[in-house]
Amino acid sequence: MTSRKRLVGLLLGLAAMIGLTAVTAKPRQAAATQEIMVVAKDMAFNASNPTLRVRLGETVRLTVLNAEEASMSHDLVIMGLSVKTEILRPGDKAELVFVADRPGTFTYFCTLHPRMMTGKFIVEE
Ligand SMILES: [Cu+2]
Fold first, then answer.
1. What range does the domain containing 81 cover?
2. C-alpha of residue 112 to centroid of ligand 1, in Å
3. Which of 1, 23, 119, 120 has its CA 20 to 30 A from that of 52?
4. How many whole angstroms from 72 Cα to the centroid of ligand 1?
5. CATH code at 34?
6. How far are the Cα atoms of 33, 46, 65 from residue 15, in angstroms, in the given order?
7. Distance from the CA of 76 to the center of ligand 1, in angstroms?
């Protein structure tokens, strides 16, 4: 009776260990989607053209909103990552989903105002 209880305990412990291993062994690509919201307004992205950071292999959902009040169009391109929105008129929103599959420091910018609206997009290993 006692040894059977011990056996059950041992089996439960073993099952827990196997379960733990399965969780630990999950690939990094299975990580949650990284949500990034960028608002284009007053000739800047998020007011200060911030550096955006994601991890290598991560799925990124990039939302770009043109919040200008005047008739100023914008878009957003990330050089080297094949990420590009269409031209967005005021009130327009684009949503791009992509996998950050190349490590490095990339430049994002608006093709209509590349000098004023530009920042860094970093894919960290
Ligand atoms: Cu622009």
1. 28-124
2. 5
3. 23
4. 7
5. 2.60.40.420
6. 30, 49, 48
7. 8
